[in-house]
Amino acid sequence: MQDFLKMYYHIDCYLETTGYFYVGQQLYYLSRIQDPQEFFNRYHYYRYLMHQCGIRGYEIVKNIYQELLTQDYVLLLYQKDNFSREQYIHQTMVIYPFPKLKVQQIKEQWICKIDQAREKVKDYAYSFKHDQDILSLIYYYCGLAENSINILNYLLQVDNQASLPVSLSLSQPVFEYVYELLNPCSYIFSTRMRHLSCLMKSQLLTYDQLQNLLETHYFDVYEIIYFYARMLYPSYFFECLFQESLDEKIINFFISN
């Protein structure tokens, strides 16, 4: 990818495996985009979120041909600003004008993930101690996911057409830096409660702050019940498992939790 950056952006540097890299004092992020149309739609709302937070966040860097995408890759430049966590959390509770997400659809996706995770058991069942740790984690987190689905079943018994409003949401928890939290590639269109769950699991939201949010913002009863299920559902573990990124550091993180 060093040659790629040099050819299309006239940037000569060492590229980290995470996609982040510095040129002088400026932080860049290079990412492959699976669905350009969806990304640019999401990026439009991301720009609105950054504007409402009073910060610039990331901006797309054009290549030497003044194009936003280069062979399905996008290069982003981070603009560091004074970041207010409280204002950010408040703004991420905004609902966007999209069709609601059906709870039944979420349940089916979760069941599919559990089935995929159980298939992974075959990869670790007859392996060494390190893989036995992964095997134990798969059993444990599949159990948590089943409990999450039981909560969704309760919600669907109340209303089999239950649906949830859609907003920008973190796709998974972030653990290190503000620049990871503000990266547009970290977001998807999903529910506010998925976003709150990611913030809680990232330790960016305390229980007192959560209580205040629940008291000062309108959440319907379906969202509250779903939030309980979402907090139990181990989406981050499944993501690491399917991407085969369960290195020793990540394994120890999940074991400690």
Automatic annotation (TrEMBL):
Superkingdom of the source species: Bacteria
Protein name: Uncharacterized protein
